[in-house]
Every structure is written in C-alpha cells, then in structure tokens.
Design goal:
mainly alpha, Four Helix Bundle (Hemerythrin (Met), subunit A), 12 helices, 0% strand, flat, transmembrane
Length: 267
C-alpha cells in the first residue's frame, strides 16, 4: 500500500523476524506488567486484546469486511482496561459509556479514511467496505448510522445519572456537527467530504470524552481531590449561566436547574 509503504516492516528497515521478536517481547513484558501492577481482569483484557488483534484482526483483513468490526472491539478495550485497573467494574455505567464511545466512534472515523484510500486498500488485497462499494451507498449509510448511535450516548449517560444534564445539551451540538458532516458525505461521496468526516472525528472524540469527564457526577470529594472538584463545580456554574434558559430567564427551556433556584436552595 502506498499509504503504509514507508513503515519499518514494509519498507524493509525491519525484518519479519525482528518484528516478531519485538512483538513477542513487548507483549510478554506488557502482560507481566499488568499482572504485577493491576489485577487479573485487566491482565486478561490486555492479553485477550493482543490475541484478538494479532491473529484474528490481521487474518480477517484480506478475507472479510468484518475486520473493521473486530478492529473496533480492539480499539474499545484499552479504556475499559484503564477503568478496571483503577478498581472499577465492567458493569459500571461509566465503563459501558467509555467502551461504547470508542467502539462506535471508529466507524465514522475509519470508513471515512478507508473511502479516501479505497483504491490503495484494494491494491493491497484488503477486504474493506469501501473497496466493495463503488457507489458509496453502504459506506455513507454506515457512517451516518454509527454517528446517530454516538448521538444517543450523552443523552443515555445523563438518563443513567452519571453526568449532568449539560452533557446532553452540549452533546447535541457536538453530535449535530458530526451528523452534518456525515450528511454532506451522503449527498456527495467525494474524497473531500470523506476527509471532512475523518478530520471531524479526530477532534470529536477528545471533546466528547473531555465533556464526559467534566460533567461527571463522580468527582471524588476526598482531600486529595477537593481542590480540583471545587474548580470543576465553579466552571460548571459558569457554563450553566450561558444556557439559553438562563439568558432568557425561562426555566422550562432546559432540564438544567435554574441558577437562581439553586442559589436559593443553598441559602
């Protein structure tokens, strides 16, 4: 592939034997590190992800379009490992949100990328959706579909009680723009529109996760976290003041508690 020809292995800078030795060494050391410093569940997730990526994902790429879905699972596992390593459960709603975000995000991101490089992927012998989709109908449909699924996450996290209502409000704007870019690609399957979806996905994910953290209801109140918690609360209050219902003084326009009402309760 033209896009990856300068990487160490395809360029010949590193031999297959050297790459294999490095992969085995780092994989083993990584597993031992997880075992020594985390817990059995996190270790199992890490080793399982290596097994899913190295043989299964690699072998499906030239054989089946399902490789993209397998790769999306691989990409969703690392934040789950971070959550379990910190003592969380796989069933915690925050963990489900993290895994869902990373899994769903990869489809607009990667289908846009693979559409731009569909000729290159086909030349390399890879079975990607855009390579078998000359009209772009399936590619556009998948990008739009998974963008819609992503749009539901901020609302779901608010309904689950793990974030404030403002996350749902801000998530509407964030996901609205992603859907706008997806619609533009659906209207015109050009490489330029695919690139716009791809570039949007690059800043979309850190924004989504950053807002998720900012609006989380689970900030620790112990001494070590008190200072940062107070700062976050102060910023949240400033953000509420910018909401439409605050500016227009109409409490029924937004689910976020009205600041004056909140203040009177505190007094």
């Amino acid at each position: 592939m033209k896009r990856t020809r300068l990487r160490p292995l395809p360029s010949g800078d590193v031999s297959v034997q050297e790459a294999s030795a490095l992969a085995i060494t780092t994989g083993t050391l990584g597993g031992l590190t997880l075992y020594a410093f985390t817990d059995p569940l996190t270790t199992a997730l890490g080793l399982g992800n290596i097994a899913l990526y190295a043989p299964i994902y690699t072998l499906t790429k030239p054989r089946s379009e399902i490789n993209t879905w397998v790769g999306a699972i691989v990409g969703a596992v690392p934040p789950v490992m971070g959550w379990t390593a910190a003592g969380g459960s796989l069933l915690d709603p925050e963990c489900v949100f993290l895994a869902s975000s990373l899994f769903l995000w990869q489809f607009p991101h990667f289908f846009a990328l693979s559409w731009m490089h569909r000729v290159d992927y086909a030349r390399g012998g890879f079975q990607m959706v855009p390579c078998n989709d000359p009209t772009g109908d399936r590619t556009a449909s998948l990008i739009t579909r998974y963008s819609v699924y992503l749009a539901a996450l901020p609302i779901a996290s608010t309904m689950a009680g793990i974030t404030s209502s403002m996350f749902a409000v801000e998530g509407l704007a964030l996901n609205g723009y992603l859907l706008y870019r997806a619609k533009k690609f659906d209207d015109d399957r050009s490489n330029g529109n695919a690139r716009s979806v791809f570039l949007t996905s690059l800043w979309y994910l850190p924004c989504l996760l950053g807002l998720f953290i900012f609006h989380s209801k689970n900030w620790n109140s112990d001494t070590s976290q008190k200072d940062i918690s107070e700062k976050v609360v102060a910023l949240r209050e400033k953000g509420k003041a910018l909401c439409v219902h605050e500016v227009l003084d109409k409490k029924d326009l937004c689910p976020v508690p009205h600041s004056s009402t909140s203040a009177s309760k505190v007094e």
